[in-house]
Amino acid sequence: YAATGRLPAASEVDGILERARERAFRHHEGKVADYIPALANADPEVFGIAITERNGRVHQLGSYDHAFSIQSISKVFVYALVCEVIGHEAALKTIGVNATGLPFNSVMALELNGGHPLNPMVNAGAIATTSCVPGNSAAERWEFIQSGLSAFAGRPLAMDEDVYRSEALTNQRNQGIARLLNAYGYLKGDSDETVDVYTRQCSLLVDAHDLSVMGATLADGGVNPVTGKRIVGEQVARDALAVMATAGLYERSGEWLVQIGLPGKSGVAGGLLTVAPGKGAVGSYAPRLDEAGNSVRGQVAAAYLSRALGLNLFASS
Ligand code: GLN
């Protein structure tokens, strides 16, 4: 299928999706995140998966409509929205695009790089990105993000208040990262306010279907294939996919790219987004995580789908 730019017939994709779930369910390892107290309540057995094709066709099964907080997957879309405003060159210069090889909330990565964030897929770069969101107040900046991510999803997204409050009370580490960025001159605006907006963006509720539509918008060069609306420009969509490929699964990003061969982005609630540029995207939810904070079953399903659908970008046939 790789060469045709399309996925196989609908019934075939449905069967392949079923087999991806079977593979995923062979895995029981990993742990639900608990460093944000409200996330520890997640049911580890819930599994939902959806594919949205570039032509808008959808395939989904399991708890594809089960809501969870988007967490780090928001980083991709806020980055795209910010790139649209500040432009490719400024984003490259102020946020960076290189992998850290270190955990998502690493302070060391920032220190080793002279205080300059490394990329928008880990917390330091994501917080720097959020600080670039346009607006005269925190409320306006939050509105920009909420409506922008909703446009990617093609429906209004709401915040999980419990997750937001729970993280806001326990995110001293992110506050520390923001202050360091500020001290080095790489944060635009107030550090506590930026972390608050960042914490809100991580608390937005999505389901596996939403993630697949959001990802398919990037696969489609910035046009939401369901609503038909252009959300970001083509180059911005390409840039966002490139940074996902570099650093979307934190310190496991290299292993992911070699195994799956597609841009991906995980979140600690258990969401995982995999994008096949020009073709479509897979969104999944399965809350048990590996040590880097990536959904175990989501990765297994993505690996199977990449193979079965011939999506690996590095494959010659
Ligand atoms: N809100 C989380 C944090 O900043 C997101 C992290 C993640 O999903 N890896 O700690």
Number of strands: 9
Shape: globular
Which spans of ≥5 residues are poorly predicted at pLDDT below 50? Answer: none
Based on CA atoms alone, the radius of gyration comes out at 18 Å
Portion in strands: 5-15%
Structural class: alpha+beta
The CATH architecture of the largest domain comes to: 3-Layer(aba) Sandwich
GO molecular function: glutaminase activity
Keywords: Acetylation, Hydrolase
Binding site for substrate: 72, 123, 167, 174, 198, 250, 268
Family: Belongs to the glutaminase family.
Topology:
Elements: H1 10-24, E1 31-32, E2 48-53, E3 58-62, E4 68-69, H2 74-86, H3 88-95, H4 108-112, H5 123-131, H6 138-153, H7 161-168, H8 172-184, H9 191-202, E5 205-206, H10 208-219, H11 234-247, H12 253-260, E6 264-266, E7 271-276, E8 280-285, E9 288-289, H13 296-308
Antiparallel strand pairs: 1-9, 2-3, 2-8, 4-5, 6-7, 7-8
Helix pairs in contact: 1-13, 2-3, 2-6, 2-11, 5-8, 5-9, 6-9, 6-10, 8-9
The structure holds glutamine.
